[in-house]
């Protein structure tokens, strides 16, 4: 049985800023660029009480909490702090899979310091992170990645949740199905239509029933409902693209597609900011009503760092479609960014803003 830890820093960007600006402690603080279509990178726990959260549009956040203090992101500083955190990880294991600057999976089935239990390793890691960076981290400990990630959010902030193999199903079955990775709005609606609201409800469906309703993803749902996740921790995981897409409940015209692009651009920008990954290639992906896939890409010389810039390029790509393509109906739209710059180049370009 594997021993997996998921470490998730608590309000990472905000926590770094508050560490360096103790005068702002206890105040509603938001880390975000203040463009019209910018999104919240991170929100302090004080501002969350107003309903503000990461990935929310800045316009919406300002309406919810007009008194919030806005700080521009400093990704050079976040990268430096993230590197300190990863040094702590390396003390215990080389099997580290970073998901972003502020979270990672660790396989501590065999740890370097011969600490007897994964729970003790997680506690030591949290203590070491606090000592070296002044920041708190939450941890989930479980036999696989799926459960460890859910557990890390259980006792936030500055907490730990252990899901032992013996109690795995007791923890898993009562969970709402939206806790399952990949269950978005459309899938959740389909699950609810089938009267599936909890993982326990899901576990009563056969593999054949789930693949009938959800295709290949049905197999994944079947496995996760039984606590099975065989994915290994993959060191040096680097994304090739950051993207967001939406499958519609009805086919849309090209004008309606244009109306959904801002939300997609915001999702991509939020994810890029959270991961600290910035590229200079934008891709627009469309799927027609008869399931034909079209992609259009544009590469720029400068880094794309916010939703406004990503949206502008996506709108330009949409405008470049042929008259025949514009007359089609579409069932899916997506935006992605790729061709990520080196960390040094990103920090250099972002320092200009």
From TrEMBL:
Record-level Gene Ontology MF annotations: damaged DNA binding; DNA-directed DNA polymerase activity; magnesium ion binding
Keyword presence, Magnesium: yes
Subcellular location: Cytoplasm
InterPro entries found in the cross-reference section: DNA/RNA_pol_sf, DNA_pol_Y-fam_lit_finger_sf, DNA_pol_Y-fam_little_finger, DNA_polymerase-Y, DNApol_IV, IMS_HHH_1, Rev_trsase/Diguanyl_cyclase, UmuC
Active site (record annotation): 103
Domain UmuC: 4-184
Free-text remark on how the cofactor is bound: Binds 2 magnesium ions per subunit.
Keyword line: Cytoplasm, DNA damage, DNA repair, DNA replication, DNA-binding, DNA-directed DNA polymerase, Magnesium, Metal-binding, Mutator protein, Nucleotidyltransferase, Transferase
PANTHER family: DNA POLYMERASE KAPPA, DNA REPAIR POLYMERASE UMUC / TRANSFERASE FAMILY MEMBER
Protein name according to UniProt: DNA polymerase IV
Taxonomic lineage of the native organism: Bacteria, Pseudomonadati, Pseudomonadota, Betaproteobacteria, Burkholderiales
Gene that produces this protein: dinB
């Amino acid at each position: 049985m594997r021993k997996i830890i998921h470490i998730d820093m608590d309000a990472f960007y905000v926590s770094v800023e508050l560490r360096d600006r103790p005068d702002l402690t206890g105040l509603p603080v938001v880390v975000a660029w203040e463009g019209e279509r910018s999104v919240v990178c991170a929100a302090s726990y004080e501002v969350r009480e107003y309903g503000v959260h990461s990935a929310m549009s800045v316009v919406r956040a300002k309406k919810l909490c007009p008194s919030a203090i806005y700080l521009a992101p400093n990704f050079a500083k976040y990268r430096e702090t993230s590197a300190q955190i990863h040094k702590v990880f390396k003390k215990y294991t080389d099997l580290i899979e970073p998901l972003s600057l502020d979270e990672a999976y660790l396989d501590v089935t065999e740890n370097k310091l011969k600490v007897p239990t994964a729970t003790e390793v997680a506690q030591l890691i949290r203590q070491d992170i606090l000592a070296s960076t002044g920041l708190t981290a939450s941890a989930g400990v479980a036999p696989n990645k799926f459960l460890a990630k859910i557990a890390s959010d259980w006792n936030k902030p500055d907490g730990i949740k252990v899901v032992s193999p013996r109690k795995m199903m007791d923890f898993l079955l009562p969970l709402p199905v939206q806790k399952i990775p990949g269950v978005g709005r459309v899938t959740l609606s389909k699950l609810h239509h089938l009267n599936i609201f909890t993982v326990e409800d899901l576990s009563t469906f056969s593999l054949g029933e789930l693949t009938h309703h959800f295709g290949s993803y049905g197999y994944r749902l079947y496995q996760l409902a039984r606590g099975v996740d065989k994915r290994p921790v993959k060191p040096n995981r680097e994304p090739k693209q950051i993207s967001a897409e939406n499958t519609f409940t009805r086919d849309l015209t090209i004008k309606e597609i244009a109306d959904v692009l801002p939300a997609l651009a915001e999702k991509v920008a939020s994810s890029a900011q959270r991961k600290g990954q910035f590229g200079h290639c934008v891709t627009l992906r469309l799927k027609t009503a008869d399931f034909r896939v079209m992609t259009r890409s544009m590469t720029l010389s400068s880094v794309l760092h916010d939703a406004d810039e990503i949206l502008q390029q996506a709108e330009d790509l949409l405008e470049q479609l042929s008259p025949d393509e514009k007359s089609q109906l579409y069932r899916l739209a997506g935006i992605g960014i790729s061709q990520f710059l080196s960390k040094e180049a990103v920090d250099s370009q972002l320092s200009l803003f």
